[in-house]
Structures are given as structure tokens and as C-alpha cells.
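Fold this sequence, please.
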Amino acid sequence: MTTGETEAFATRLSAAEAARVRDAVDITGLSKSDFLALAFRYYIKENPHNISAFRPKEPDQDYLVDAGILPPETTDEWTGIADL
């Protein structure tokens, strides 16, 4: 479903994976949506499967920020949960 500048995606996880996500959401205090958006952001940035669509034209380009899904990331955002 596309709404303005954002689009919703859905997936199914195994019960074990879903439990790990719920635990991470509880630990971080983020909503499920925000936590999964951060996970997508990380995957897109790291691009472990070298998907060409995830290679930005600009080195600091963030597709989720550009789409209005997430606010720009700051280093302060990670200091509180980096050791969890």
C-alpha cells in the first residue's frame, strides 16, 4: 500500500524470528515499525547481497529518509542501544 511518500511492505517470520524481534523491540523501546525500518535501513546501507538498486548515487544517500519513512539518523540515536 502506497500512501503519499511511503509504501507499506509485509512479510512473515518464523515464530522464533518473531520472538527475537519482539524481544529486541522490548529492549530498545522502539515500535515494531520503527525497529523494522531501522533493520531495513541497516540492510540497505550494508547491502550484503550487493544488490545494485541499493547502491546510492550519493555516498550518504538514505533511501528511507528520502522516502519520508524515517527521520535523518544521527550518531546520538545509537549510543543508547549499541551495547544491548
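The two ends are 33 Å apart (CA to CA). The helical segments are 15-28, 32-46, 63-66, 76-79.
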